[in-house]
Write a structure and sequence with these properties.
The chain is an alpha+beta fold. It is 19% helix and 37% strand. The strands form 6 sheets. Strands 1, 2, 3, 4, 5, 6, 7 and 8 form an 8-stranded mixed sheet that branches. Strands 16, 17, 23, 24, 25, 26 and 27 form a 7-stranded mixed sheet that branches. Strands 9-11-12-14-13 form a 5-stranded mixed barrel.
């Protein structure tokens, strides 16, 4: 009676397959919490994948099994044709496991190299960033941010984690893990990055690319699977190329995103404080006068709502969720006092504070701040930012007017200002690189005297 997945037919009553779980999924609630479901992805010895869905009583029945990486013999359940309106890992069928299904862990070994990938290069991803086409990607993990909770457009909380990938040429691509992948596979990648001498290499199937905030990023989907450090020729070649190139580019920082600054307008602190603009992304240049919280530039972020948790009667509590002893993740929250020579303001930077500090938050937390701080490498790097000029990327929001008036704002990215004018010239060239753009140029002399009446219009043409 045992079959391979390819031999299953819709509405087949009796069947049995031996498969490995490659995505275990998490239990989700729907219909205002009255119902539960769980989706898992399986693969057989031939590398054929299939999605299985569990509802309500079946979720409860199999909650302690179907673990990722383990092999099971699954017998009977509903075999049905897929809904073509939704993405799936199989072109024909999917499974629904019921109370009448049996799931038994078995000793059959299904090697991970049976999985089939059709990797797309980083350069080719941008050509198909239509949010519909799904691709397979291979990348080496340069950086992993902590997972946190966000609200979907429907107001449903979900988990999110950002990972920075590099290819063999050290070109970077941002990856967003959603839902169970943020905590499960994302947590495994984070642990490997923290505790291993080698950076993990991940193979992703069925991810989507899109342009967000003027930058290309990958997003996982309901049918994405992630494999870590596969025994593949492509993995060995990527690792060898990466370490060869990194030796030549030791000082390169991959966290900041220069392209973000070239695609947005520059404003002043005064314009932000006076609420001149709303609902736009922009940047301002300012000098860091002081680091307000250099000893403890982090907070414990509630895994449900991302708010700060506090000690309360001998334990920790999230007052936003009203949750006693909540699960939490440390997150950077660096506070700076900055000035652009006209105005001063307090700027808070969350995850990208690592650009200024030079290490992940978990590493900074382990530093011994009781001894001479000047001898601590990452503390010295952070304090060396004082008196230097930086660009701060901000998203101006209408509901933050009161914060701006108090001279407080959040920056999502930061970039040191170079000593010469080449960077500014590059940004200007990027902004006006399209053919036949018309821009206004004010007369410098009259503007210096406070008179901006005389303006010139010029046409920028591509060479």
């Amino acid at each position: 009676m045992e079959n391979n997945i390819d031999l299953l037919q819709p509405y087949q009553k009796e069947w049995s397959i031996s498969v490995m779980v490659i995505r275990s999924g998490s239990i989700e609630s729907y219909n205002n919490g009255s119902n539960k479901k769980r989706k898992i992805i399986l693969v057989d010895i031939k590398g054929t994948k299939i999605q299985a869905i569990l509802f309500n009583e079946a979720v409860e029945k199999f909650k302690d099994c179907l673990e990722r990486g383990k092999t099971y013999t699954i017998t009977n359940g509903v075999v049905k044709a897929i809904n073509s309106h939704y993405p799936n890992v199989n072109e024909r069928i999917e499974l629904s496991l019921t109370l009448y299904t049996t799931v038994i862990e078995c000793a059959i070994i299904i090697p991970r190299d049976v999985l089939i990938f059709n990797f797309t290069s980083f350069n080719d991803v941008e050509k198909i960033s239509d949010e519909k086409t799904m691709v397979d990607i291979l990348g080496i993990v340069e950086h992993v941010k902590s997972a946190f909770t966000v609200q979907t457009r429907m107001g449903i909380p979900t988990r999110k984690r950002e990972i920075l990938l590099l290819n063999d040429k050290l070109e970077k691509l941002n990856l967003i893990l959603w839902g169970d992948l943020a905590d499960n596979e994302g947590g495994e990648v984070e642990s490997l990055l923290q505790n291993s001498d080698q950076r993990p290499i991940i193979a992703l199937s069925n991810v989507k690319a899109k342009i967000y905030a003027e930058e290309l990023q990958l997003n996982t989907t309901q049918v994405t699977t992630i494999e870590i450090n596969l025994d593949l020729l492509e993995v060995d070649e990527l690792r060898e190329s990466y370490y060869s190139n990194i030796l030549v580019n030791k000082q390169v920082s991959f966290l900041s995103s220069p392209n973000k600054f070239t695609k947005v307008s520059e404003v002043t602190l005064k314009e932000i404080i006076e609420n001149k603009y709303q609902e736009i992304q922009c940047y301002f240049e300012a000098t860091i006068l002081s680091v307000v919280n250099s000893n403890n530039p982090w907070y414990n972020s509630c895994n449900k709502c991302s708010k700060k948790i506090y000690p309360n009667k001998g334990h920790l509590k999230c007052f936003n969720c009203n949750d006693e002893n909540p699960q939490y993740t440390p997150r950077y929250m660096l506070k700076l006092l900055v000035s652009d020579s006209i105005e001063e303001a307090y700027v808070t930077i969350f995850d990208n504070a690592e650009i200024l500090i030079g290490c992940p938050v978990f590493k900074y937390m382990k530093l011994n701040m009781d001894g001479p701080k000047e001898d601590i490498q990452f503390y010295k790097k952070l304090m060396s930012c004082q008196s230097k000029q930086y660009r701060f990327l901000v998203m101006l929001k209408k509901d933050k007017e009161a914060d701006y008036a108090r001279k407080q704002m959040v920056a999502s990215d930061v970039q040191e200002v170079e000593d010469n004018n080449s960077a500014r010239e590059l940004r200007d060239k990027e902004k006006f690189k399209d053919n036949n753009q018309v821009i206004e140029i004010k007369d410098d002399v009259l503007e210096a005297e406070g008179d901006t009446r005389l303006k010139k219009k010029i046409k920028i043409e591509k060479d």
